[in-house]
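Need a sequence for this fold. Nothing fancy.
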């Protein structure tokens, strides 16, 4: 129920902003566009929420944070592989910072070094 509440709440908050800046939407779209919108809504958003909360139940909030940190590397990596985008130095630095975040948040590396024989 939390995911539904977040989606409904954000939609209600954003509708007035969209109407002010873009005006009423033009709903005369082709069948391909409607199919793409439905696919993105059903697969990308709905399935992401289902997976997000399933992971939350299984591993808890601290490890769930690790999953959300994977979004930028995957987006950049998929853009590089499928769209031919170039990964600059800043992307690699960002990846290193994210890996550092994994190490600090997970804590297994530090606990391995702190164990006494």
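Here you go.
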């Amino acid at each position: 129920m939390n995911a539904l509440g977040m989606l409904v709440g954000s939609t209600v908050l954003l509708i007035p902003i969209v109407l002010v800046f873009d005006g009423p939407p033009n709903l005369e779209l082709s069948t391909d566009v409607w199919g793409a919108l439905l696919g993105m809504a059903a697969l990308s958003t709905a399935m992401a929420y289902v997976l997000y909360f399933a992971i939350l139940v299984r591993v808890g909030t601290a490890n769930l944070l690790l999953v959300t940190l994977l979004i930028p590397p995957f987006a950049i990596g998929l853009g590089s592989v499928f769209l031919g985008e170039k990964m600059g130095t800043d992307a690699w630095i960002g990846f290193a910072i994210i890996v550092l975040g994994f190490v600090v948040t997970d804590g297994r590396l530090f606990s391995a070094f702190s164990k006494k024989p």
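For context: The CA atoms of residues 56 and 64 lie 6 Å apart.
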